[in-house]
Amino acid sequence: MKLRYLAVGLVTAGSVSATALALSGTWTRDPVPPGLAEAALWTPEAMPMPASTEAPVLAPTLARSDVAPMVSPPALPSAVVVAPSLPRVEPSLRTWAREIAAGETLDAVLAEAGLDAPVRAEVALALAAEFDLRRLRPGHALSVITTPEGSPRRVVLEVDDGVRIEAVFGAQVATRVVTPDPETVHFAGEARIESSVFAALDAGGIPARFAVDLAQMLGGAVDFRRDLTGGETLRLMWREERVSDDIVGQPDLTFAALDLGDTLFEIVCPEDGSGRATIYRDGIVMRVFAQPVEGARLSSVFGRRTHPVYGDVRMHTGVDFAAARGTPVYATAPGRVSFVGSRGGYGRVVEIAHGSETTTLYAHLSAVPDGLSQGDRVAAGDLIGRVGATGTATGPNLHYEVRVNGRPTDPLSDDRLSEGADHAADDAAALDRLSDARARLEERLARALTPDSTERL
């Protein structure tokens, strides 16, 4: 730009000088030397425009314009002002929790948690909406979350099998039952019998309650007092329902093999929940057995005992299986219902006739299926009732009897029911099930011996 102004200035100066000389010549009338006259007529050549990196690039028509282009500065983004928000501060909550001990009531435990009487009543009503508080027993756990003012926010009652009863208190009270989704885990184990089946299972880390199942299913075929002399091998498979590391319910036996040396007894239990088990002797179907109660504990055996209610010594004419109220009860063999109703100290009873000589009796029931009546035919494994405590009973249990010609006999040793039990309808399919169970047992036992295996003996 400075060069341009300089060039224009020189041209202007030259013109002025020429004009002045011309006027001077006119005024003075003196002759002008030729060299000076030529100098007066000289004009500088136009200088080229210098390139400038700072000048904007314009179209050719604009480059010849006398008006300088207007260059607008780039628009700056507008700043968004966000008002700072402070986090909401929740009041600190207090958590109180412990297990319920024997003889305690819910009200007493809630009082220990610091709740007032009206609040305790409200909590009890909320929990009772989803759980029968009469079923509260030792081992259940209660947790109470309260505000600093002592108002309950959340109360959780943990009952059996990982089930939780949750009550949330706010503008309204909401109660729900949370049932865990258990994982099925399979196990395999082997034990050597020295003194008893129970001791062998316990020493081998196998659920000892399977001794009761084996005694029921092999009763009449194996005398566990006489035939087991020591050195016998017992191999089993079972499954457990687990939530994390906690077992939900009772383990279920799926296969068992008892090797007596000269005879091999094997049991294949179905996984359909029917309770029917196929029993094999030396690889041949011997009979089909249905347990009266799955997952129960044998609480009293056949024979003389001190009566738990009256305190005197008298004959116990059956066996008792302790189980939770409402646990299904199944017929152990096919037959025809000969009695349904109440019978003295037995409470609610279902009686089934198996032929002309043998009957089974199921007592202390809390309920029977709708429509079950005298004369109905049932198969082994059919549902005939639910565990209860009706009649003379100290708690929920099934009293199970086997009578032959009206005389009670030991249900765990009598073999007469096997004569009326269903045999496998398809022997080929039964043998296939046995072959498959044997293969799975061998595979799991081999896996259990691998150091990095998750299976255990």
How would the blueprint of this fold be written?
Layout: H1 2-28, H2 34-41, H3 60-63, E1 94-99, H4 106-112, H5 117-128, E2 141-146, E3 152-158, E4 164-169, E5 173-178, E6 183-192, H6 197-203, H7 210-217, E7 233-243, E8 246-259, E9 264-268, E10 276-281, E11 284-290, E12 297-300, E13 303-306, E14 313-316, E15 319-322, E16 328-330, E17 335-342, E18 348-354, E19 358-367, E20 377-378, E21 383-387, E22 397-404, E23 407-409, H8 416-420, H9 427-448
Antiparallel strand pairs: 1-2, 2-3, 3-4, 4-5, 6-7, 7-8, 8-9, 9-10, 10-11, 12-15, 13-14, 15-22, 16-21, 17-18, 17-20, 18-19, 19-21, 19-22, 22-23
| Rg value | 49 Å
Class computed from helices, strands and strand pairing: alpha+beta
DSSP strand (E) fraction?
25-35%
**Terminal Cα separation, in Å?**
99 Å
Number of helices: 9
What fraction, in percent, of the residue positions are helical? 10-25%
CATH class of the largest domain: Alpha Beta
Low-confidence stretches are 20-29, 57-65, 419-425, 452-457
Mean pLDDT: 77
| Architecture (CATH level 2) name of the largest domain | Roll
Sheet with most strands: 10 strands, antiparallel
General shape = extended
CATH fold title of the largest domain: Nuclear Transport Factor 2, Chain: A
Number of domains: 3
Number of strands: 23
